[in-house]
Amino acid sequence: MAFVGHAVSRVSVRRAGAVCMAAVEEDGRAASGSASGSAANVNRRAVLGGLIGVAAAVGVQGGVRDAQAGAGGAFSSTVFPKASFPDKLDMDKEALKDPKVQAGLKDLRKYRSALDKVLADFKADPQMDVAAKMRAEFSVSQLRNDLNSVNAVFDEETQKATDRVVRAIIQDIREIETAAVVKKGYERTPKKIEKTTGWITQMQNDFDKLLALY
C-alpha cells in the first residue's frame, strides 16, 4: 500500500505541475505585450509558490499513508515479535527433579525475594547506593548459571520464548544500575528515581513470568 501511495503522490505532483506551468506560460505571454515585465515576474513567483505548496501537501499525505501502512504491516510483528510462551509447554519432568535444577530454582526464588528488599530499601532511601546493593544481592555469573540450569528442562521450541526472559533478567540488572547512576556530589533526581523504580519492578515481573512456569 505504501508503494501505491508514492505512485499517487507522484502523479498528483506532475498534474499540479502541469497546470501551474501552463499558467506561468500564459501569464508570460500576457505580460510580454505590456510596458513592464514586473507583473509577469510576480505572477510567476506566485504560481511557482503554489506548485511548491501542492507538492509539499501531497508529500505529507503520502508520508502519512506510509506510516499507517508500516504501523499495521507485517514489519512490526515479524521483526519485533512479542515475548510469549507457547500454549503448551513441553517440560522434562525427570530433568526437573535433577538436584542441580532444584538448587537453581531455590536460588532464583531467593533472588526474587531479594528484589522485594531492594525495592523497599530504595523507596525508603532513594539516594542509596543502588549499584552496591545490587552487587551485594546478586552474583551475575551465578544467576546466569541458575537460569541456564532451570531453562534446560524445556524443549527447544519452548526455550525460544524462555531464552528471551532469561536474557531480560540479566539485562535488567545492568539497566537498574545504569538508571540509578549519579555523578559524585549530586542527588538522584525524581526522574531517575522513577526510572530506577521502573526497572526494579520490571525485573520482578520478569522473574515472576519465568518462575510461574515451574
Give the secondary structure arrangement, pairings included.
Blueprint: H1 2-32, H2 38-72, H3 74-79, H4 93-96, H5 99-124, H6 130-137, H7 140-151, H8 156-180, H9 190-211
Pfam families: PsbQ
GO molecular function, one term: calcium ion binding
Describe, in plain words, how this protein is organized in 3D.
This protein is mainly α and 214 residues long. It has 2 domains: 2-79; 93-211, Oxygen-evolving enhancer protein 3 (PsbQ), four-helix up-down bundle (Four Helix Bundle (Hemerythrin (Met), subunit A)), CATH 1.20.120. Helices cover 79% and strands 0% of the residues. The chain is built from 9 helices and no strands. It has helices at 2-32, 38-72, 74-79, 93-96, 99-124, 130-137, 140-151, 156-180, 190-211. The protein is elongated.
What shape does the CA trace take?
Answer: elongated
Structurally, the number of domains stands at 2
> What class do helices, strands and sheet pairing give?
mainly alpha
Measured as a percent range, the helix fraction is: over 70%
Total strand segments: 0
Q: Distance between termini?
A: 45 Å
